[in-house]
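Thread: "does anyone have the structure for this chain?"

Original post by V.I.:
We have the sequence but no experimental structure in hand. Need at least a predicted one for the grant figures.
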Amino acid sequence: MRFLKLFIIIPLFLNAELVIEITKGSDNPYRIALIPFQGEFSFAKEANEIVKNDLLRTGEFYIFDEKSLIAYPPSEDDINYSDWRLINADYLLLTSVIESNSGIEARYEIFDVRRKSKIRSSKVYGVTNNVRQLSHYVSDGIYEAITGIKGIASTKILYVSQSNNLDSIYKLYVADADGANEQLLVKSPEPIISPVWSPDSKKVAYVSFETGIANVYIQDIFTGDRESIIKKRCLTCTSNEQISSPSWSPDGKYLSLTLYQDGNAEIYIYNLQKKNLTRLTNHYSIDTESKWSPDGRKLMFTSGRSGSPQLYELDLRKLNKKPKRLTFEGNYNARGSYLPGGEGIVFVHRSSDQFQIAIKYFEDNFIIPLTDAKMDESPSVSPNGNVIIYAISEQNNDILAGVTLSGAKFRLPSAKGQVREPAWSGFLK
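Reply from O.Q.:
Generated one for you, tokens below.
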């Protein structure tokens, strides 16, 4: 789809710190008549609210208010398509959630009002105490059936939170894509930066300064177990950023990262099994912020070798290959990520005095700005390639925001503290 010095490891679930706010929807949204979930009241009410919010958050759906629904058909046989065309509904959803011997079961049916036909009928199973995750899977099924794109309501996001008090505390969280269901992974008085997911979304890598120098840690999401990599490192380095920007290869066997071992920032690849390093770049300019292509054959990074920060790409299949420059428009392009399909890249672009999130398709010679604030940074692309989450500064507050390729926008302001460095998981189902 192409449109516009104490640290604590705590696998602990807390109340949501982020609250979704839809700021702009698509110009031509799908109009959905969502018949309230049938079934046991507490389950049905919670599921109905979550699915509704999941669809609204995409910015691509208009959900009719319950008071404007002209009927509550209990089954397909009771649907009168002509009635729903009167209110200009595109789709009608019949849903239910019940408790079974093995947990809970959600059922949903999707009807195309204009074609007078059912386009999907499905069941989703979950555990009794997790209606939220079950509902996210229902949302993803609805989204995919209508748009043809896999949904991301059931995915997760990582982000770093910093307290506002004088003794700043840094926390690394994992949460649902809507900001709810937070899990605190790490808490430290020293900075935590550059969190990234493993390809299977079971582990995360991040940089922590808890020992006084930067180290990369790999941590299991579910157990909290973690390890520091590259243990034997220069302890006499004066740079504050001796190591940064880890990025996982698509097969999970390697990490690319930036090392300052000889006083200059260069890109290296770390073999997670053999625990050795291979140097990729050798230039007097800074080379940093590497990202793997979806097929694992190329590596994109930010470099100042042209006189200003620009994005370059290395073909890993060719020895001693000269990096190929990818961006030419403007004097600042950095923090690049590939789209999941490999058809383009998303990055931070400076236009005049504004830092915007922009996209460039490889078949085009121009870039497309997606945001219009003055200080947007750290973009992360959803696994379906349709949404970018990023960090913004608004009235001296650091918050997260999102934009879809169809132009819808949302924000996830924090109830407490500053939030930055978002990272999107892969598909979890």
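V.I.: this helps a lot. The first helix runs from residue 41 to 57.
O.Q.: and Confidence is low (pLDDT under 50) at residues 1-16, 235-241.
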